[in-house]
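Support reply, case 0932

Customer input (verbatim):
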Amino acid sequence: MTSDKKIDPRIFVLYDEYCHGHIDRRTFFSRAAAITVGGVSALWMAQALLPRYAEAQTISFTDRRIKGRYVEYPSPGGTSGSMRGYLVQPTGDGPFPAVVIFHENRGLNPYIEDVARRAAVAGFLALAPDGLAPVGGYPGNDDDGRTLQRSLDREKLDQDMINSARYLKAHELSNGRLGATGFCWGGGMTNRLAVALGSELNAGVPYYGATAASEDVPKIKAALLIIYAGTDPRINAMWPEYEAALELNGVTYEMQMYEGTLHGFHNNSTPRYNETAAALAWNRTVGFFRKHLAD
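Our regenerated output:
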């Protein structure tokens, strides 16, 4: 995988716009092609940033330490009234502490499924819901997934995720203690879930996600471990107001800023991945959940 040190920072800025749906794929490539580095078009840099999921898998579907399957469950008030997710458990009879894992703004792609398996290997009953399930599921590529997710009613999509968390908490393999984590859009969803569930959520770890509204922070009862990339201006600008609201309302929280990293640094399918920071953040996430989700 290409090192992020070889990618011009201007291409990362374009990629961030592309990932968040502000420009389409064609515009991303055309603007990148217009940038030259050492007299050479930077188009190859843009191409290098596209996800390579097959290379990024860390735990196979058939790993003997876990058991994974796709499950369907009711979702009243959501997009269609039903949902589907990837449920992964450690081997054994349980019950297990439960963690719901929210995807980015493009549906349940292979990276998020791999994160669910990582959580199960760490001892958690993990559910990665697919917000696109009511409209056919993750379509197999991020561009179409992003378009599909953008077309959904936001409140109904949020409700599907809230229902997924409650389904997991009540699952027969769950010990009744619930954690949540997510990345980018899923990080924001983790914050919103903390508002929606109140004391039903025990711990949340949002990765570089939009903050909850300040007026909603009094509803948060979960302990939070809030993770930011060092270079992520849009998301990081939200932190001072969020910090003030968390302090004012006595919410238990930690904030960790990983200097030298970019938005998406945990995602090992693109060159934004920072191996050292991602490993440290994940180890801290696991430790945080073990602390707050134990029986």
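We compared this against your earlier run and they match. Two observations from our side: DSSP finds eleven helices and ten strands in the chain. The domain at 53-293 is CATH 3.40.50.1820 (Rossmann fold). Please reopen the case if you see a mismatch on your end.
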